[in-house]
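pinned: reference chain
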Amino acid sequence: MLTSLAVSRFSLFAEAKLSFTPGLNVIIGENSTGKSHLLKLAYVVSALQSESSEETAPEIHFHLDERIAEKLVAVFRPNFLGGLAKRNSGRASGRSRCVVHADFQGHALRFSFAPNSRKKVVIEAHTAPKIAKSPVMLPPKEALSLFPSLVGSYERRELPMDETYYDLCRKFQAGPLKPSQLHPVASLIQELETILRGKVLLEHGRFHVITSDKGKLEIGLLAEGLRKIAQLAYLLLNGTLCRGCTLFWDEPDSNLNPRLIRKVAQALLVTAQAGIQVVIATHSLFLLRELALLNRSHAVETLYTGLEYNSSGVAAHQDEDIEGLPNIAALEEELDQSDRYLEQYLETDQAKNPENDQEPPSAHPKKALR
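pinned: its structure tokens
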């Protein structure tokens, strides 16, 4: 599991150091503050650490620098590797290297590259673990409906999408484990199937969900939020996700209505409660509130990371309580809108009913998650 990630001159960040809890990790920030970049970088270093473990592929130790450059370019899709280095006044300095340092429960991976580097990476420290479980990255759009055509297309053609979709579809290729092998996560699968109201089935290369009321449905006929949950269920069924793994999920609330966001929030918490490290990026106040409400009964260790602009770029702040973070613009705007809506509601209501001076039942104080 990832325990910390420090960067210097990476993307929008002059300097940033993040800690990670084994439970639920939530990265918050408005658009263009680097949420997805941090999440993708955390995924890339976790995937590389898994690939370079002694059990997985000892030979990669001799080519790890090339693999780091290859993976960064495939996931972030810059024109060249140095494009990921933070720029000064619109121009990159060839002397200020980008440095990335990740720690995995005592095993470290540290590397750097120059802003003008096309594919050269310098490994400054690396301690390979004997065993490291492969992480899972769920991009904003679900991928079950893209399987299996995406795998073959990505391997043969240039596609305008980052490699996280290809990585995920490859993980769908494994068939389900035997029931005797699912004991550690059997209860989690049952909870996800309860939320899904069905069981996920891979048949003749295509995914379906078998429901009690509608029978067998093609995966594309389900709402996107349910397809996102179906991804989790199947990755548990085929052993890709297991205790000790890390799940990265970029904007799990993307394109979902509030009812489905509630289901996704429940899925996130039961996943973290099952011993799987969860790292998400979001700017949804609704999702944050739902996680806080549900976590009162699940009691999952949670760490919030708030991103905000400052004079040197984007700064990261961390706290176990979201109210301990500085003001997050994306959340403040939603809270401010709630206040303006409430004020207008009260003015209109009092004009129509002067004798009614009570607050409407929907009133909420301006506290982020209380």
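why pinned: Confidence is low (pLDDT under 50) at residues 361-370. The chain is about 35% helix and 25% strand.
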